[in-house]
Amino acid sequence: MARIRPLLVTLLGLLYSAAAVAIEEQPQARSFSLPAARTSERYPVGKRSITGTTNAAHVDGSILVNITLGSQTLPVVFDTGSSILWVWSTYYNGSLAGDLYYNISASTTWAQLPGYTFNISYVDGSGVSGVVGTDKVTIGGLTVTGATLGAANLGPSAPSTFKAGLIGMERGSMSVKNSAGNSVTRNTWMQNIASSLPSPIFAVYLPWGSGAAQSSIDFGYIDSSKYTGTLSTVPLMSGTARWQFTSTSYYVNGVHYSVTTTTSGQALIDTGTTLLLVYPEIAAAFYAAVPGAYQDSGEWVFPCSTTTFPTLTLDVGGVQAPVSHEINWGPWATFANGTKICDGGIQTTSRTTMTFGDVFLASNYVVFNDAASTIQIANIVF
Ligand SMILES: *[C@@H]1O[C@H](CO)[C@@H](O)[C@H](O)[C@H]1NC(C)=O
Ligand SMILES: *[C@@H]1O[C@H](CO)[C@@H](O)[C@H](O)[C@H]1NC(C)=O
Ligand SMILES: *[C@@H]1O[C@H](CO)[C@@H](O)[C@H](O)[C@H]1NC(C)=O
Ligand SMILES: *[C@@H]1O[C@H](CO)[C@@H](O)[C@H](O)[C@H]1NC(C)=O
Ligand SMILES: *[C@@H]1O[C@H](CO)[C@@H](O)[C@H](O)[C@H]1NC(C)=O
Prior knowledge:
2 domains, aspartic-type endopeptidase activity, mainly beta, Cathepsin D, subunit A, domain 1, 3 helices, aspartyl protease, 382 residues, PEPTIDASE_A1
């Protein structure tokens, strides 16, 4: 079919083990306003009073947030599937004309870590490498002075006109190489800010599609206006930096199914993946209840005239979470007789762990808590 396949951005980074974690008390529920550009250093442990919030945007299959490096504000991908913060920079030795990048020589607060490098590959084959340094990094009004970041100089990815880089929000620390070429860990921006927050959490609110509210990310607090019902707390798998949990059952139109595939029966939440990628048996059960649905070269598609979809819930560590938005993911093909076929937002994965990407997050509000080794989840306010 003469059609470019829709973007399926998948930015899961390389795997490494999470740092040891301790149990924290439950999040406190409210914030107060924060003057911009306060440094975490001014808030000793014990004075946990600052919170932050930033808008997020869905652009070209990516979730973008603005971050300020030194005094330059740039949009970057917000990725819970990897851990390095990096941006395209003036170290890049190709053309940056028209693209978004960080001008190192215009920052008075940048300090390169001599000999340090980073190199990250993503599961979709993209990736970057470059030098490593520290700078003042502000997100949602929260500033970390001396946050570690990578200044990219080489592909295989290329600079872009709508995003400058990526902030990794996986659990634990980031891994870079020192001047001896050895892997060393550095704190992430989230690890640095966590001790200044009333609770060491971030909450992801990503309603998506026609009529959806403004997406946002909150740091240090839970905004009860962004979900309905109560938050369910789900334990995370140990031994992985991923936001990963068991997922062994599902419901289609109220009928219960157990996952039978000889897989791990697990899933992870990845804001860096656009679609909802489930085991083939789950997609098959779902699309069996969509009249006219079929697989085109492995991709689940259906007539664009479809207006109602079966109800689907997926197991998030024992909690059934709904999937009710972005199921029609847009045009796929048009037949000679005029019939239009649309692409499904729910697709299959051949991996042993399912990836619950942005299509899943369009229906669910999620609170991420590395210290407690949990996520909390509730139905989103659309
Ligand atoms: C980033 O800031 C620019 C300029 O204020 C704004 O136009 C854009 O919408 C912001 N992007 C996000 C993702 O909030
Ligand atoms: C550009 O990058 C390549 C690959 O690392 C390197 O061989 C080359 O020297 C660089 N060019 C400049 C002008 O820095
Ligand atoms: C970077 O900033 C410096 C200092 O403001 C400026 O002279 C230079 O033209 C900028 N370079 C690029 C590539 O934007
Ligand atoms: C980065 O890692 C990839 C995958 O291991 C490798 O192919 C590439 O050469 C590395 N790039 C640099 C600049 O080290
Ligand atoms: C249109 O063409 C497609 C592909 O040949 C076929 O599957 C479908 O049934 C046709 N629809 C109508 C309304 O004729």
